[in-house]
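[#protein-structures] MJ: dropping Fructose-bisphosphate aldolase here for a structure pass
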Amino acid sequence: MPLVDMRDMLDHAYRNGYAVGAFDLVSLDFLEAITDAAERCRSPVILSLAESHFEHYDFELAMAATEAAARRAEVPVAIHLDHGASLDSAVNAIRLGANGVMVDASHEAFLDNVERTRAVVAMAHACGVPVEGELGYVAGVEGEDAEKHPGEVVYTSVEEAKAYVKRTGVDFLAVSIGTVHGRLRGRPKLDCERLKRINQELRIPLVIHGGTGLAEEQFRRLIANGVAKINYYTALADAAGDRIRANAKANGAAGYTTLVRGVRAAIAEEAERCMRLWGSAGRAAEVLMQCRPWRSLQHVILYNVEGAGDAAVDALMAEGREVLARIPGVRRVVTGWAVPDKPRFRFCWLVEFASRAVIESYRDHPLHRAFADEKFWPLAPDRVSVDFEALDVRAEAAPPLRRAAN
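AK: finished. structure tokens for Fructose-bisphosphate aldolase:
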């Protein structure tokens, strides 16, 4: 099954009264365990990579593996940047394959949070990518991830939530109603009345950070009051740690592969438990039918040049690769020369867009306009362009090709 539009996925969950798990991964064991769990119980799933975890892995390499796993998965998948720290972080995540991003300015004053979030929303929406914002502050208490979120809990204000969504245009809102990052101490007291009023005012999918340790009835109340996405990590990390400690106790001389034996199964068991509890299990087929597939788009230009030698063409290509790659939504820029045998066109560009939405934003972006108007078009009057989406044989047929002179 293909990657699917994350906005469609969470809108479906919101309308139908269940929540999709956004499971943070920090290694291939986590990645494979989460996808295995989703496939076993036929659940949609969000593969989440948190910027607060980047010290544990190379983000670019992890994203490449995550996208590969998502595209071969047998259930609908979305890829999400969790706790993005900046506009640049969101641009980079989309370039690497994320089709959902979160900007976390929840620790800042309200107006600063609005300003930073609005900038990310404008960029991401031009790429067709939905945005999660956060209002209020979910602090850490104890456990592996708690130190990443210092300070005290700040509850989300109903009035500020309404103003924040209106001013920023976020698609989903992470709220603070009593959960914490990391492990809980005792039974949390969730302000579900506050959550209910937020949901009544906003009517958009709500998000809970800090899902570890909540009781079954608490999860059910969250989902009944608009929560469609639950972020989950600490319990997965604890399951992995418990397995490693048990392996070490059983064999004090164990090497790495022996120590991590069974880790994937332990993570998968906990992830599957959550999927069944949150109501997403068994919904893969209906989600796939009602969600748009997420496909990158290839923008191809074939051309000849006039009044320029090969060295000038090389320089033009090098400049274009550098300039155009900086435009949000551009995943890669490839330039090439035709092989011999007297082709109709001697040169080509291949610019990969994150989605079809990027066609318009790329065309109008100042970097593209300046390069095209001043550098490329004057040298290449003889050209043709084609935009196409790659077909996925497991998905429905793609829309017709779009052809245009450019």
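MJ: nice. Residues 6-290 form a domain with the TIM Barrel fold (CATH 3.20.20.70).
AK: one more thing. The first helix runs from residue 6 to 16.
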